[in-house]
């Protein structure tokens, strides 16, 4: 690590203040170009600690940048990982207040819920499928705190991978009931289809994103606990939204989920 504890605490407070006050900032590596991956995750961990210290609950985890196209575009070989706080959750069909956000975009995702803990190293798709209770449609709202979504990956990790809101719902199904690679998805905005894809867009199989998360946590001596909700990453490009929009994600065999932006 290259940053001292006081700097990590200060950067975490800065980024969380930007989230809570819906204001943007320049990417933090401009002032701290020597920041490494451990520093970046330490800043994210401090944001998480701050939320829990105020009585918040961590209700899930997420993988980001998991589609091959986006990884190639950004020149990365590993996804990034973040957490979901209770304050991020929107009920299915519920409202998301745009005034509380900076420049929101939505991502269509497959959400996993585990019934057994998953621990790396060596976690693989088979272990993930064996430990999964059910999967369901999920929409993640991302809202990078960085001006105009201009960032580098370490800055993104420190910023909890742009996480801000999410909705899950639809028809939860056991993994044996659906082929997660070929399951088709349609994201609609205001009733119009705006993005299409299939589960395989995420690392060939969305369970691979969960395995990578387990291996990432395992390297830190942590695990994915039983009963975790995990967003496995956007299947298509993210779609910008504004007040007045409604979005709906339909996934073959899993029904639909949606939210409204007000
Ligand atoms: O969940 C995601 O894939 C977002 C990762 C962070 C990068 C971004 O804000 O686009
Ligand atoms: Mg996402």
Tell me what you see in this structure:
This protein is an alpha+beta fold and 262 residues long. The protein has one domain: Fumarylacetoacetate hydrolase, domain 2, CATH 3.90.850.10. It is 26% helix and 28% strand. The protein is built from 6 helices and 12 strands. The strands form 2 sheets. Strands 1, 2, 4, 5, 6, 9 and 10 form a 7-stranded mixed sheet that branches. Strand 11 (246-251) and strand 12 form a beta hairpin. Helix 1 (5-21) packs across helix 2 and helix 4 packs across helix 6 (206-218). The longest helix is centred in the first third of the chain and has 17 residues, at 5-21. It is globular, with a radius of gyration of 17 Å. The N and C termini lie far apart (42 Å). The structure holds hexanedioic acid and magnesium ion (MG).
Short summary:
This protein has six helices and twelve strands. It has 262 residues and is an alpha+beta fold.
What are the key terms here?
262 residues; alpha+beta; 6 helices; 28% strand; globular; binds magnesium ion; Hydratase-Decarb/MhpD_sf; 4-oxalocrotonate_decarboxylase; 2-oxo-3-hexenedioate decarboxylase; lyase; 4-oxalocrotonate decarboxylase activity
